[in-house]
């Protein structure tokens, strides 16, 4: 199964229950973003890099939250969710290593 097919199936499912999925996703991605920020701040790297990571995680999480509140198109909201979650996961993974 290729990535685009999986993406399209998930997007279709997200569109069907956008209100419910958006609500649950806000909670999940906000918690994930919080963990990413906590780990970035605890890491021993230059302060400018730490604050840049915190800034990026915050911007991406808030962009998704704003998209949900503004009732943007399902595809835009879904894409922001994916970007936010992936960035937080990468941040967590890099700070754990």
Oligomer: single chain
Order of helices and strands: HHHH
Low-confidence stretches: none
Query: Strand fraction band?
Result: under 5%
- Count of distinct strands: 0
Characteristics of this structure?
mainly alpha; 4 helices
Note down, in words, how this protein is organized.
There is one protein chain. The chain has one domain. It has four helices and no strands. The protein has 97 residues and is an all-alpha fold.
Short description:
With 97 residues, the chain is mainly α.
Secondary structure layout:
Elements: H1 3-16, H2 18-42, H3 47-69, H4 74-96
Helix pairs in contact: 2-3, 2-4, 3-4
